[in-house]
Specification:
The complex is a heterodimer of chains A (about 400) and B (about 500).
Chain A: E1 6-8, H1 13-26, E2 30-33, E3 50-53, E4 60-64, E5 69-73, H2 78-86, E6 90-91, H3 104-110, H4 117-120, E7 127-133, E8 139-143, H5 155-159, E9 168-175, E10 177-178, E11 182-190, H6 193-205, E12 212-218, E13 221-230, H7 232-248, H8 261-271, E14 275-280, H9 286-300, E15 302-309, E16 314-320, H10 324-340, E17 345-349, H11 352-355, H12 368-378
Parallel strand pairs in A: 1-3, 2-3
Antiparallel strand pairs in A: 4-5, 5-9, 6-10, 7-8, 7-9, 11-13, 12-13, 12-15, 14-16, 14-17, 15-16
Chain B: H1 6-19, E1 24-25, H2 28-31, E2 42-43, E3 48-50, H3 55-67, E4 72-75, E5 92-95, E6 102-106, E7 111-114, H4 120-128, E8 132-133, H5 146-152, H6 159-162, E9 169-175, E10 181-185, H7 197-200, E11 209-216, E12 218-219, E13 223-231, H8 234-246, E14 253-258, H9 259-269, E15 279-287, H10 289-305, E16 310-312, H11 317-328, H12 330-333, E17 340-343, E18 346-347, H13 353-367, E19 371-376, E20 381-382, E21 384-388, H14 395-412, H15 428-434, H16 437-450, E22 487-488
Parallel strand pairs in B: 3-5, 4-5
Antiparallel strand pairs in B: 1-3, 2-22, 6-7, 7-11, 8-12, 9-10, 9-11, 13-15, 13-16, 14-15, 14-19, 17-21, 18-20, 19-21
Helix pairs in contact in B: 1-3, 8-10, 13-14
Classes of the chains: A alpha+beta (about 400), B alpha+beta (about 500).
């Protein structure tokens, strides 16, 4: 459906508003595309007359290094943003896969993130302001350009993860962080999910502050990468303390030789295959969720990879659907297990035959009636990504 | 006992049937307590105050109030500085003070479930022995409640590194304006659907009543290093902050006080800060020991290089606590050097601090008023305190004017009219200068999604009350608009 619709590629924010006003007048249904890395997310849109691409909206609007804020248009790729601010020793503390393709607008719409979520949170913790072209074509803004601001409702945060269902995100302002003087990753093999969890608890108890903890599932065991960043003296201290704590748990840490490889392994794991699933859970329930959800799913998918952020309670399992029936059974069991652990299981992507029989979002949130009201106010004619978001909004 | 009209007795009886007679208040003398919040200049007597003790009672109270068409104002501890809990004449105030229990502490998940009337500092106190704490630390943290913190998205000195209430509340139970009980957010990562929590936090009592909250609790950092430095003027102090940040250091907190603020704090608390300094900085860095030793040393060097007169480090935890007590008591302390003062809460880009302070000083001088400045320098959140004497004819009006002009300066420099106190009743008039019509209309979408009948805090935050369903561009004054009824003093 998306492929057959006419593509509109506005070159300025004004042109974007203009195009959307026209669509509004003609009653056309829209979907929005940035880098196209997560088009599988959500239900298939009910109707699409036009696809609006933010590809040409690729300007860095305002960079204030002394204030550590940056404002960019929605089509700026994460890599381009990072390159612009790295010159002044700064970064957006967000590290999802495929930064050279994924755009700021797309990241906001899908709530994209990577391992550094452990320390820096998600986009809702980093976005200061945003402009939105509403369904009626009017460009409005919320939030601001300063790091502290409580004037009015925080509409920019409401846009995070809204999957283009409230309009087209046109630009956004972020708070930046300093690039660390040094980073070091301690790598180790843990015999089980329980062992990974015990390690995480020990790191917290030891008052260590890793920027990321990533566990790769390997036949029931886990390769764990723990990233420390900051000034050299602090990084040295933390890496040493981390290794000591691991040894006390009977885990043998590396000397840091694996530094360069974990990142590529992470990105490849999160982007492979035609079935990609995200599970969330109480962090203390990691072992149960691994046993009841993640390990069986990994076994069922072909060429599957399992990546876990154990301190955040998030796991990604990605692979190919070799046997649709078996995959459906494994997905249903995994969702049940994740929900019992207080979380959710969302199919980020799946082939059509799986989607038809497996609801990509799962149990409907209790606040869905309020979400419907939000949608009805922003997009009363249901023209923006109609039916694609949670509850077929 | 005063004689009340039968209608008031009957009203009291209907709410008393839900919460008990003691907790449905209509006696004028008792209502007086609730006439204002921390913005004491605004006073309105509500028709009734109700103090429920459970979520079900809150829901029943809301449904009854709606059926009686009473406008509703939720209230926490009443410490807010923007009039968010200012009652509405003829309306109901729902006070959450009785819902003050900590319901669950889950250290394994770093979560804590609390009722809205729990005092901010009591959250940290409960878990201090376990080595954990709750990060947002408004200066009023020993008296303000988490429900009020959620309504205002409260900040505090340590928000520079750790973020605000919105970054630390992960789930709430909300009684909606329809009297429904809804769960919003999740203690677990990434609940599906719109992030409604991000608008409920900071909604200033317009989207319903939070009756339970799950907050994130953090492991205490291994070490904290604090320094207190004095400077000839705010210029050198501001340059120090910029230099520290430019070196890639994210302090846990950097607070600046100018000469007048120092004078007030010394008078009120007896700290031995030098009265001849033009400005002082109080800074915390925290984290792993080796890191904070390193960053504290760099920061100290930078302060000296930027012209510090003196750099002090506390000898022990007690002395450090005293330094912070000095800072956190600044607002109240100004009462020692002036009979009255306005507290402003503007935000500017950090790099504009010097220029903005000069404009504020000129503004004060032109009006013949003193302005004390105490603020969160790291994130550009100013708290200019405009000093005046209400007994001197015309001073109050001049002070009010200066406060308003300070907000306009903040807008001019690309900042905001409030960093942590909220818009409330106080600054609604400036929202139209900060945002365009379309921006405000979009915020109104959010409000109307939750409260199409505009029963909750109907006269707050937005400059031109607008009914839900209005066509864009047509403004209709809401019948309950009470701008003319709110009195001063």
């Amino acid at each position: 459906m998306i492929d057959s619709a006419e593509r509109v590629v506005p070159e300025t924010l004004d042109a974007l508003s203009e195009a959307m006003r026209g669509c509004h007048a003609r009653g056309e249904a829209l979907t929005f595309v940035g880098g196209g890395t997560d088009l599988g997310l959500g239900y298939p849109p009910e109707r699409v007359d036009r696809v609006i691409s933010t590809q040409q909206l690729a300007r860095v609007v305002d960079y204030a290094p002394d204030d550590m804020t940056v404002t960019v248009e929605a089509g700026v790729t994460l890599a381009a943003l990072q390159a612009a601010v790295a010159q002044r020793g700064q970064r957006l503390a967000l590290d999802p896969p495929r930064p050279e393709r994924t755009t700021i607008g797309g990241l906001l719409a899908t709530n994209g993130y990577g391992p550094r979520r452990a320390r820096y949170g998600t986009l809702r913790d980093l976005v200061l302001g945003a402009s939105l072209v509403r369904a009626d074509g009017e460009r409005v803004r919320g939030g601001g350009k300063v790091v502290k601001n409580v004037a009015g409702f925080d509409v920019p945060k409401l846009l995070v993860g809204s999957l283009g269902s409230l309009g087209c995100i046109a630009s956004a302002t972020f708070r930046l962080h300093p690039l660390p003087e040094m980073e070091r990753t301690v790598v180790m093999r843990c015999a089980s999910a329980a062992s990974v969890r015990a390690l995480c608890v020990a790191l917290t108890e030891a008052q260590l502050e890793p920027s990321a903890v990533v566990a790769f599932g390997v036949d029931g065991e886990f390769d764990v990468a723990i990233l420390f960043e900051g000034f050299a003296s602090g990084v040295d201290q933390q890496a040493t303390a981390c290794a000591t704590r691991a040894r006390a748990l009977g885990i043998a840490p590396s000397d840091g030789a694996g530094d360069a490889t974990w990142r590529a392994r992470h990105d490849a794991a999160r982007t492979r295959g035609d079935v990609r699933v995200k599970a969330t859970f109480r962090t203390a329930a990691f072992a149960e969720v691994d046993r009841g959800a993640l390990a069986p799913l990994q076994r069922t998918l072909r060429d599957a990879a399992l990546v876990v952020y154990p301190t955040a309670g998030v796991a990604f399992c990605c692979g190919d659907a070799a046997d649709a029936e078996a995959v459906l059974a494994a997905l249903a069991a995994a969702r049940n297990c994740a929900e019992l652990a207080g979380g959710t299981l969302v199919a980020i992507d799946a082939p059509g035959d799986v989607r038809q029989r497996f609801d990509v979002y799962g149990t409907t949130p209790g606040a869905l009636p309020l979400m419907r009201e939000i949608k009805a106010r922003f997009d009363p004619d249901r023209r923006c990504n109609a039916g694609r978001f949670v509850g077929h909004l | 006992m005063t004689t009340l009209p039968d209608t008031e007795r009957e009203l009291q009886g209907r709410f008393a049937a839900i919460v008990g007679a003691r907790h449905a208040i209509v006696e004028p003398a008792e209502l007086r307590t609730y006439e204002s919040d921390g913005l004491a200049g605004f006073r309105v007597r509500p028709r009734i105050v109700v103090l429920p003790s459970t979520t079900d009672e809150v829901a029943a109270v809301v449904r009854l109030a709606r059926s009686l068409q009473l406008p509703i104002v939720p209230r926490g501890a009443g410490t807010g500085l923007s009039g968010g809990a200012l009652p509405i004449a003829g309306g109901i105030v729902v006070g959450l003070a009785r819902m003050n229990r900590i319901l669950d502490v889950d250290v394994a998940e770093q979560r804590m479930r609390v009722q809205p009337g729990v005092i901010n500092l009591d959250i940290s106190r409960r878990i201090a022995g376990l080595g954990y704490y709750y990060a947002p630390d408004p200066s009023s943290q020993s008296v303000c409640t988490i429900g009020g913190n959620i309504a205002e998205n409260s900040g505090g000195a340590h928000c520079l590194k750790y973020g605000f209430t919105v970054n630390h509340v992960v789930a709430v139970t909300l009684v909606t304006p329809d009297g429904e009980v809804v769960s919003i957010g999740s203690p677990v990562a990434d609940p599906v659907g719109y992030d409604l929590l991000s608008v409920v936090v900071g909604s200033e009592g317009m989207l319903g009543i939070v009756t339970e909250a799950v907050v994130r609790i953090l492991r205490k950092p291994e070490a904290t290093r604090t320094f207190f430095a004095t400077f000839p003027s705010t210029d050198e102090a501001g340059a120090t902050v910029s230099a520290i940040v430019a070196r890639g250091i994210v302090p846990a907190a950097v607070e600046m006080m100018d000469r007048l603020a120092i004078e007030a704090i010394v008078a009120a608390t007896g700290v031995d800060w030098p009265l001849d300094a033009g400005a002082a900085l109080l800074m915390d860095v925290d984290g792993p020991l080796a890191e904070v030793e390193h960053t504290a040393a760099i920061a100290t060097d930078l302060a000296r290089a930027c012209g510090a007169i003196e750099v002090r480090t506390p000898r022990d935890e007690q002395e450090r606590a005293l330094m912070w007590t000095g800072r956190k008591s600044a607002f109240a302390a100004v009462g020692r050097i002036s009979p009255n003062y306005y507290v402003a809460d503007g935000v500017i880009p950090r790099s504009s601090i010097g220029a903005v302070l000069r404009e504020i000083a000129e503004l004060g001088a032109r009006a013949g008023l003193r302005v004390a400045n105490v603020f969160h320098a790291g994130d550009g959140n100013l708290h200019p305190l405009v000093l005046y004497d209400a007994r001197v004819a015309g001073e109050e009006e001049r002070a009010e004017h200066v406060s308003g002009e300070i907000l306009r300066i903040c807008i001019k420099y690309g900042g905001s009219i409030t960093g942590e106190h909220g818009v409330g009743a106080d600054k609604a008039a400036y929202m139209g200068e900060l945002f365009g019509d379309g921006d405000l209309e979009t915020m109104n979408y959010v409000r109307c999604a939750f409260d199409p009948g505009r029963a909750f805090n109907p006269n707050k935050v937005f400059p031109t009350p607008r009914l839900c369903g209005d066509r864009p561009g047509t403004y209709v004054a809401h019948p309950t608009e009470i701008a003319g009824e709110a009195g001063r003093g």
